[in-house]
Amino acid sequence: MFAERVRQDLGPLRIVLIGAFILLVPIALVTSTIRLAISETDVYDYAVRNYGAEKASDIPESELLKANQEIRHYLNDPDSGPLAPQVVNSAGETETLFNARETAHMADVRSLVQLMFKAQVLAVALALTAAVLMVALGSVRALAAAALYGSVLTLAVLGLTGAVAMIGFEAFWDRFHGIAFTNNLWELNPRRDHLIQMYPEAFWQDATTVIGGFIALQAAALGIISGLYLLFTRPRAQTAPPEPRELPERDHTPRPRLAPPNPRHYVR
Predict the structure, then answer these.
(1) Of 28, 18, 37, which Cα lies nearest the Cα of 154?
(2) Is residue 88 part of a domain?
(3) Number of C-alpha atoms within 13 angstroms, CB side, residue 6?
(4) What total of structural domains would you count in the chain?
């Protein structure tokens, strides 16, 4: 009786937890996947190797790959010094890879990346806290339902974003930069600036597609697991007990009594 009263009192809290968890699922999935991509050197090297960076920059690929290590470390470590990679160009001359405009833009990029890292940690922590509280309140199925709805919300957001990007990625990419940054330092010249030569728009379009697909796979897996749990743990309908059969009323009408058998009837 007391436990049931506690559940009723905590009803609004469970609604808040479920709603928060649904909203946190897409944030946690998106930021965690992007953080993984930013932390992987192979992503940077793929851009240099597959989009003509060596030819566009007139810098040997091996030098650009070395610079990738410094760029990755710069973005992931908020305490690292200024970004100033030195490379040897095709003429054998040592030069600073990025000019002042590119360096300033990379500082803005690191600030944005570090802000996203903090949002990722907060979103994951809050989602785990909400999940533990829901289970503690005896609502494992509520957690599964929230995870299912969260995965659906993630797929819906990805679908909408993907549709907008497919209409015109260049306009979508420019709009993103206009929202993310308060200046126009991101407007670089592909004929002159090494940063955009190393990571051209074609790379960002492909990377966005791959990252979006990976997030969609995670959301789909979460939705399938949650849906299967809800399916196999659903309460079974209780069958009603059979209704008692009414016995026919006993006939109390007196019947005529038969005479006892005569023994002589059985003797020939």
Answers:
(1) 28
(2) no
(3) 6
(4) 1
Confirm if 21 and 127 have CB atoms less than 8 A apart. Answer: yes
pLDDT at 29 over 90: yes
Looking at the predicted structure, is the pLDDT value of residue 73 above 50? yes
Residue 263: pLDDT over 70:
no
CA–CA dist 25, 223 (Å, integer): 11
Query: What does the alpha-carbon distance between residue 231 and residue 190 come to, in Å, rounded to a whole number?
Result: 54
> Is residue 197 situated within a structural domain?
yes
Helix-, strand-, coil-residue percentages of the chain, each rounded to 5 = 70, 0, 30
**Residues shown for the chain:** 268
Domain that holds residue 195: 7-54+113-233
Q: State which amino acid sits at residue 5.
A: R
The beta strand positions in the chain, using DSSP E, are 86-88, 94-96
Cβ-count burial of 37 within 10 angstroms (0-12 exposed, 13-18 middle, 19+ buried)?
middle
